[in-house]
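Here we describe the complex-level prediction in full. Unlike the single-chain runs in Section 2.1, the two entities below were treated as one system.
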Amino acid sequence: MQRVPILKLGDVLIVSIQIDLEDQSVLALQEDLADAVVQHGAKGVIIDITAVEIVDSFIGRMLATIASMCGMLDAQTVVVGMRPAVAITLVELGLSLGGVRTALNLEKGVALLDHIRSATP
Amino acid sequence: MSGEREVVIAGSADVVGVRQLVRSVAVEIGLSLVDQTKIVTAASELARNALVYGGGGDVRIEIVTNGPRRGLKLIFTDEGPGIPDIEQALTDGWTTGGGMGLGLGGSRRLVDEFDLVSEPGKGTTVTVTKWSR
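The structure predicted for the assembly as a whole is:
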């Protein structure tokens, strides 16, 4: 099983998924990320799925779980880089990822996190 | 790819393998990027179903033709407990496995043809086809 690396930049954690996600890797990422948020006192998490070719219901649920889990640990999550074909497929599949914030790319994701934090002192 | 291929689904690495193989065949028959993504996503759901609910199984991947159109046909088979109530299993949100209950109903929406045959105690076969436009 491959593990997805978690990078720290200031008080933001950046996860860029570059592998074809196996279910076990998905579950490991959830746990690793929860640990990392607490360990670093991170206030934001950015998950970059630019290289992810498909998001099925399992991976979609992982994104939603991570967002609510990090929320409970006082960190905001933004998913960035979703491919258009992935968005179309997710909606047809029936997953709208309602509770997950998204931005088009990493730069806009960082800006969104800054915006959220300046709005909630 | 000539003829058909069969892949065993016995572990979660095989689900990734099925996705990769279905993607390469979908590219080969000229499906659009969106259609490739849909059939690969459906294949991922159905392969996981065969693994989680059927205790493992296999998938046969075939290229089919209908006049000038080419299609990708996937036949997922498992010898698990089967599905007692197929209508219920196709309903969004209904699950016995702790998932989101979108696998079967969702995959049906992502493909052009969907057929599910299941007999309690004997197993389940799901056949899906996606046609090039």
